[in-house]
Amino acid sequence: MTLYAQTPWRRARQLVADVLVIGWVVLWVRAGLWVHEVVGRLAAPGRTLEDAGSSLSESLTSAGDTVARVPLVGDDARAPFTAAGGAADSIAQAGVEVQQGAHQLALLLGLTIAAVPILLVVAVWLFSRGRFVSRARAATRILDSAADLDLFALRALATQPVRALAGVSDDPANAWRRRDPEVVRALASLELRSLGLRAPVPS
């Protein structure tokens, strides 16, 4: 499989594109992590609420146990402390829910911030590289030797700019019909260069 062009300039462009894509991915991964960290700080009030609720619940439970030991009125006096302890537990649970919500939001925003730009650029990069690989592989299957240059010369006549064709010959179509080897090779080289390939060396 031909992953990179054989022509130096196009191969250099592909390598630069690869480096830029890698840099882009690293940049947005770091941005996603930063957003995750910043949004995750919203969980701090939830932790404070949980700690305060848990501490209050423990204190009320302890006070209720102490009051319960008072003769005659112990059980009746304990009931308000038990109810207040339940409310404190609810406060602690609310703190836990705040933390869970903040962590989920941080994860969602972090992934979204990182994934969207990464997927867009990587999709374009994969399409471009896949198109190159497919075309280069097809051309390589056809191009076994210098004798196969005629097809690429014909394709160059059909697809290459007129200015490029004029640089090969004053009458490239007629020269191709005459099977002029130099013109055929020059035309084929034009087309192959556009595919990132080099013409085979004549044997």
What is the number of beta strands?
0
Number of helices: 7
How do the helices and strands follow one another from N- to C-terminus?
HHHHHHH
Percentage of residues in helical conformation: over 70%
Number of domains: 2
Question: Which segments are poorly predicted (pLDDT under 50) over 5 or more consecutive residues?
Answer: none
Spatial gap, N to C terminus? 24 Å
Estimate the strand proportion.
under 5%
Structural class label: mainly alpha
Molecular shape: rod-shaped
Arithmetic mean pLDDT: 82
- The radius of gyration over CA amounts to 37 Å
Tell me about the largest β-sheet.
none
Keywords:
203 residues, 7 helices, 0% strand, rod-shaped
Structural notes for this entry:
The chain is mostly helical and 203 residues long. It folds into 2 domains: 1-139; 143-203, no CATH class. It has helices spanning 8-40, 43-68, 74-142, 149-159, 162-168, 172-177, 181-194. The longest helix is centred in the middle third of the chain and has 69 residues, at 74-142. The protein starts with 7 loop residues before the first helix and ends in a 9-residue tail after the last helix.
